[in-house]
Amino acid sequence: MIANPFFRRLDRLSRLSNADISALDNLFDEEREITKKKDIVPAGYKLTKVYLVEHGFGIRYKLLPSGKRQVLNVILPGYIIGLSAAIFSRSPWSVMSLTVMSLKAAPFDRFIETCYARPAIAIAMMSLSEQKHAYVSERLADIGRRTPIERVAHFIIEIRERLRAVGYVVGNDLETPLSQEVIADCLGLSMPHVNRMLRKLKEMRLITTRDQVMTLTNQTELGLLAGCDPTMS
Amino acid sequence: MIANPFFRRLDRLSRLSNADISALDNLFDEEREITKKKDIVPAGYKLTKVYLVEHGFGIRYKLLPSGKRQVLNVILPGYIIGLSAAIFSRSPWSVMSLTVMSLKAAPFDRFIETCYARPAIAIAMMSLSEQKHAYVSERLADIGRRTPIERVAHFIIEIRERLRAVGYVVGNDLETPLSQEVIADCLGLSMPHVNRMLRKLKEMRLITTRDQVMTLTNQTELGLLAGCDPTMS
DNA sequence: CGAAATTTTGATCACGTTCAACTTCAGTGG
DNA sequence: CCACTGAAGTTGAACGTGATCAAAATTTCG
User: Fold this and answer.
1) Nearest-CA distance from A187 to chain B in Å?
2) How far apart are alpha carbons A21 and A10 in whole angstroms?
3) Exposure string for A192-227, b = 16+ CB within 10 A, e = fewer
4) In degrees to the nearest 10, what's the CA dihedral of A125, B4, A136, A110?
5) Residues β-bridged to residue A60
6) CA closest to A70 among chain B residues
7) B90-131 pLDDT, tens per residue?
8) Which of A8, A67, B86, B95 has CA 20 to 30 A from B228's CA?
9) Looking at residues B16-40, what average pLDDT do you find?
10) Of the candidates A60, A72, A133, which has its C-beta nearest B84's C-beta?
11) Rounded to an integer, what distance in angstroms lies between the CA atom of residue A83 and that of residue A75?
12) Interchain proximity A145–B68, CB inside 8 Å
């Protein structure tokens, strides 16, 4: 197994042979560096390449006519960017980097050819799509029916879980470049309210923060508050 | 092309050969009838079959510990049920019928075997997953950042668009079994508020309703109000 | 026709947005 | 090294929105 957050994710979902893995590895052969806060995929455009995230954080988001922004998903190492933008004639959303990112690119048509030649890869991609789908669905339940404090608690836990799956979690800490503004746009809240909810979580002694690092001091209680679906763990 | 809403959807997304189509048709060979308001997939369970919807409407939803319900997606003819519930060890959500439904079932392991044998099917499934993903993302932007009136307008347009894609739309009318309670749970609103917003749309002369049928009397204005993403059409 | 589900309406009020000001922090150039 | 700048975090006050609860009207269906 090649050390790479993407293959680590795939390995959890689906059985790929070593030949499949190295085919993928050969496919994504073009390196690309992105500076922070840079648009990678603009809404409405078609892409002819797909990207794997090696390092760094980004967001997938929609800008509404009112000027408001909804963050649809946080993009972590090991994630694919541009699949929808390559499949459909216009990307339904935008993607931008939050931090410096390093990507690996592959031409979409070669990617599809590889899927034909190695069905296991296509099936693994289907699983990945379904997993993405599950994450967005969870966020939908968050925003639609959870209270703001529950949303924030739930968000913290989910991001942690996803980072763990790509090997980025150490101990009880959680280190992310997510500003309160980004969190607000993820959760459909205003920035001041996110700030208040985070303060409340600190007052409840469920989390502490120092510098950019959040520490979960009482994970059980936090999960209870979040109304965590035992299904998803 | 076999007359079937699912194949009609697939045909829009991906090029399948006639052999692929008949392989799928043979695969989903078990007929199953579901009465109205019946659970089809319970949250937390694993399925060993996947289903195609031939007729009828359903919803995919989550029940939160607080007792509130978030509808994640409306299930229409031509949709697949149970893919996530078969891929993951526990279904992250529930599915229930709204109306009487007729389904066609296939064992999941045979479905996967068919994907191996016919990669075009696996690739088509990947496209379908991405499309589902786009729908849920659109709903996320709705609930997170659109005003209630915009949400309702947008919801009407989206459901119409999706029904059109499976050949269920005639003229300016829209006939669905979606009660205001279901719409409220789709949009993260309370039922009385959905009622008010629908009244407002009528006052604005954008829609009229008679019996179960809604008529869009001014689709342009409705789309403008919804802040419709020209990207998605 | 009767029962149940759905829609409609109203009154009240808590919650979360909005807007604005201020603080803190990080990065940069003088 | 410190002043400067812009970004991010923090706090407060006021307002408006949409939830909640309850009741009535209407429709649907057995």
Assistant:
1) 7
2) 10
3) eebeebbeebeeeebbeeeeeebebeeeeebbebbb
4) 30
5) A73, A95
6) B141
7) 999 999 999 999 999 999 999 999 999 999 999 999 999 999
8) B95
9) 94
10) A133
11) 13
12) yes
CA separation for the pair B71, B169 (Å, rounded): 23
Q: Report how far Cα A190 is from the mean position of its chain's Cα atoms.
A: 21
Cross-chain residue pair A145–B91, CB shorter than 8 Å: no
Q: How far is CA B88 from CA A99, A128, B116, B133, in A?
A: 32, 11, 19, 17
Q: How confident is the model at residue A114 (pLDDT cuts 50, 70, 90)?
A: very high
Cα end-to-end distance, chain B, whole Å: 24
Residues of A in contact with B134 (CB under 8 A): 84, 88, 92
* Average pLDDT, rounded, for chain A: 92
The Cα B100–Cα B58 span in angstroms is 9
- pTM for this one? 0.93
User: Are residues A231 and B44, on separate chains, in Cβ contact within 8 Å?
Assistant: yes
Mean per-residue pLDDT over chain B, rounded: 92
Interface of B with A in 173-212 (CB under 8 A): 185, 187-188
To test the contact with chain B by mutation, choose from A70, A74, A118, A158 the residue with the greatest count of B C-beta atoms within 10 A, namely A70
Q: Residues A10-14: what's their mean pLDDT?
A: 78
pLDDT at B142 over 80: yes
pLDDT at B113: 96
Q: Tell me which nucleotides of strand D come within 7 A of a protein CB.
A: 7-13, 17-22, 27-28
A152 by Cβ neighbours in 10 Å (0-12 / 13-18 / 19+) ranks as: buried
Closest-CA residue of chain B to A184: B144
A31-51 pLDDT, tens digit each? 999 999 999 999 999 999 999
User: How do residues A128-155 score in pLDDT, each as one tens digit?
Assistant: 999 999 999 999 999 999 999 999 999 9
Tokens of B219: 């689709």
Q: How far is A166 from chain B (nearest CA, A)?
A: 18
Report the distance from CA of residue A117 to the C1' of nucleotide C5 in Å, as an integer: 54
Q: Report yes or no: A63 at the B interface, CB cutoff 8 Å.
A: no
